[in-house]
Design goal:
Strand content: 5-15%
Bound molecules: 2'-deoxyguanosine-5'-triphosphate, magnesium ion, zinc ion
Shape: globular
CATH class of the largest domain: Alpha Beta
Number of helices: 24
CATH topology of the largest domain: TIM Barrel
Number of strands: 18
Distance between the termini: 37 Å
Mean pLDDT: 95
Strand order of the largest sheet: 2-4-7-6-5
CATH superfamily of the largest domain: Metal-dependent hydrolases
Radius of gyration: 26 Å
Structural class: alpha/beta
Length: 570
DNA sequence: GCCGTTTTCGGCCCGACTGTTTTCAGTCG
């Protein structure tokens, strides 16, 4: 019964209801609720256990959906979903994953051809039965077959850092087009989401531009998905989709707001506009047919009496309410960072020596750093106690020659299966800061894993829990663990939680960070660099921290060395 | 299905691109 995916259940209900032809607003309610429970900064389970009506206080969760969440929590099942699956084949929702096929056409192939799965649909398309259906032509049939192939290849979402590989060359190419004024990346990339489904680019022009023709002629494009005067999409050879939107220069602000999203944020802002008799779209803010403003984002927010909101916060997770009462957080910036507390050297699995890492940290203006090579439990990469002592002596020597940075002796100590550590208390006592993390034995139950990590955190010499959930984006699920409980332990034991800035970790997640902030637990943003260049991953960590509403004071490595050392006192 | 000091009923964001639609539905952003 542990680990019910509440969001998935609501998503499935939304899909099935939509195929059934239910009221679109009812469908949207389920989709919104799925989003809400997925990204909750208060843990859903503690709300579910509570006696009171706390669940109903969540935006978009009323009596009915709260009841369904409770039923799921208590029984592990949902009668309503089971009944729905009797009425609509559950495998039909897969058909909606194919580009160009939505609820109406899923319904149509089910009704007309008794198709209930992607495989059956593929057969119908191959046999030519599909193009006989009203509304389906040969073009559509071919598109479906292609869509099914792509679905099998499964490009999926791209890590933000992978998207970065393609963004700069593409922008450089687009800038060659005639008639361009602005060119900016919007969408989830601008909101600095940990993964992006595509790249959304906004261009503006004063007198018309040839940018659309130029765009679809990009040599890295594999396919043109759509092409119109204001909006075109291509798929890159790498599989990544790119959407380009072109609007008049005077619509820059409104278009940027629209194209940055998120969708839920847009709907909320437009709803507020509507209450005030305003129409907000990507071209501007309108009163009737009269354009009121739209040149800048500030104007758009201003039209609904809100201050400008950072893109990272635009997720309809309370930022609008916070902005309304002037309580938006002043979120952290890269320049606030004064140190990096996890990195590796050639002593373990790093590529650069301690001296090189120190030099690289000084170049980045850091005032302190910790060298955290692995303990002996990592057999290939780990250090024996004697290696650590050798390294500490080397650090002493390096430190003697430097007065602009403090090198903290440390280690990334492994949390063993029973919650004990792979280095002795004696050795830990020789360190300035102790970082702990799980690196093996992931297949414990949630309760066991939580107990294991909690025990390690209770060790009196431990300061930082690194990459607390162990997930690797697109490669490895987090091990099962109760992050809410870890936050509580961190609070009681004065342990800090790491936000690991490696772009495939970004661990903790944004909503975990919000949870920690609300509990007053300090976060440390570390790059876990395995070479000097990886120290620059810090900005990914800061981006994630911004999405988690963290302010400078919430992040321990924004403090001066003295203050940071003070924070570690138990 | 949710929501509300203008409402407990009647609203719910708004627009672009595609295809076979003869005047616009479906899908997607
Ligand atoms: N008003 C409005 N805006 C939308 C809607 N769908 C998308 N947008 C806007 C907000 C999105 O951030 C932006 C880009 O759309 P995308 O589908 O690419 O979404 P986004 O980039 O947020 O996430 P992604 O990582 O691409 O899945 O377009 C919508 O239904 N209504
Ligand atoms: Mg996008
Ligand atoms: Mg897009
Ligand atoms: Zn590690």
């Amino acid at each position: 019964m542990e680990n019910i995916d509440y969001a998935r259940v609501f998503e499935e209900i939304a899909d099935l209801l939509e195929i059934q032809g239910a009221n679109p607003f009812r469908v949207r309610a389920y989709r919104n609720a799925a989003r809400t429970v997925e990204t909750l900064s208060q843990p859903l389970e503690s709300l579910l256990k509570g006696e009171e009506q706390r669940l109903e206080e969540l935006p978009g969760i009323g009596k009915d959906l709260a009841g369904k969440l409770r039923e799921l929590f208590q029984t592990g099942e949902l009668e309503f979903l089971n009944e729905l699956r009797q009425q609509v084949p559950a495998s039909l929702v897969q058909i909606m994953q194919i580009p160009g096929l939505g609820p109406k056409r899923a319904r149509q192939v089910w009704d007309a051809l008794d198709i209930t799965s992607v495989d059956e649909l593929e057969q119908a398309a191959r046999s030519g039965a599909l193009e006989q259906l009203p509304g389906f032509g040969s073009t559509m049939q071919a598109r479906v077959l292609k869509g099914i192939e792509e679905l099998k290849a499964r490009a999926g979402r791209f890590k933000l850092s992978d998207a970065d590989i393609y963004v700069q060359p593409l922008l450089a190419y687009l800038r060659q087009a005639e008639g361009l004024v602005d060119l900016e990346v919007a969408g989830s990339y601008r909101r600095r989401c940990e993964t992006v489904g595509d790249i959304d680019i906004l261009a503006t022009t004063s007198n018309g531009s040839s940018v659309m023709d130029h765009f679809v002629a990009y040599r890295e494009a594999r396919e043109i998905l759509a092409k119109g005067p204001t909006k075109s999409s291509i798929r890159l050879k790498a599989g990544l989709q790119v959407d380009l939107r072109l609007v008049p220069q005077e619509s820059y602000g409104a278009a940027m707001h629209y194209f940055t999203g998120s969708k839920a944020h847009n709907i909320a802002i437009r709803g507020i506009g509507r209450e005030r008799g305003l129409k907000i779209n990507e071209y501007g803010v309108f009163s009737g047919d009269r354009l009121i403003c739209g040149e800048t984002e500030e104007e758009v927010f201003g039209a609904v009496d809100l201050p400008w909101i950072s893109p990272e916060l635009r997720e309809a997770r309370g930022e609008i309410e916070a902005a309304r009462v002037k309580r938006l957080p002043k979120i952290i910036e890269l320049e606030d960072i004064r140190g990096d507390l996890q990195m590796h050297t050639t002593y373990s699995d790093g590529r650069n020596t301690a001296e090189e890492m120190v030099q690289a940290c000084r170049e980045r203006g850091y005032k302190y750093m910790a060298i955290t090579d692995h303990g002996p439990a990592l057999r290939m990469a780990g250090l024996k106690p004697s290696d650590f002592r050798r390294q500490f002596a080397e650090i002493d020597e390096l430190q003697e020659r430097l007065d602009d940075i403090r090198i903290l002796k440390s280690a990334e100590v492994d949390i063993l299966e029973d919650g004990s550590l792979d280095l002795s208390d004696g050795l830990l006592a020789e360190m300035d800061v102790v970082v702990i993390a799980v690196h093996s034995k992931f297949n414990l139950s949630r309760a066991e894993m939580t107990k294991r990590i909690s025990k390690a955190m209770q060790h009196p010499q431990v300061n930082i829990l690194a990459h607390p959930t162990g997930r690797l984006i697109n490669r490895r699920e987090p091990y099962p663990v109760d992050v809410e409980e870890l936050v509580k332990v961190a609070q009681n034991e004065a342990v800090m939680l790491e936000l690991n800035a490696q772009p495939d970790r970004l661990d903790l997640r944004d909503f975990h960070l919000q949870m920690a902030r609300e509990a007053g637990v300090k976060i440390v943003i570390n790059t876990d660099a395995h070479r000097t260049a990886e120290l620059d991953y810090m900005h990914y960590g800061v981006d994630q921290a911004r999405r988690g509403w963290l302010e400078e004071a919430d992040v321990a490595n924004t403090y001066s060395l003295a203050k940071f050392l003070e924070l570690m006192q138990k």
